[in-house]
Amino acid sequence: FSDAAFVPVFLRSCVLCLVVAAVCVLFAYPVAYLIPILRGRRKYVMALVFVIPLLSSYIIKIYAIRSILRGNGFLNRILLYFGVIDKPLEFLIFNLQAVALTLSVLLLPFAILPIFVALERIPQNLVDASADLGASSWQTFRNVIWPLSLQGTIVAATFTFVLALGDFVTPQMVGGTRGMTFGRIIYSQFGFAFNWPFGAALSVMLLALVLVAIVLTGLFTRARHQL
Question: Is 21 helix (H, G, I), strand (E, B) or coil?
Answer without folding.
Answer: helix
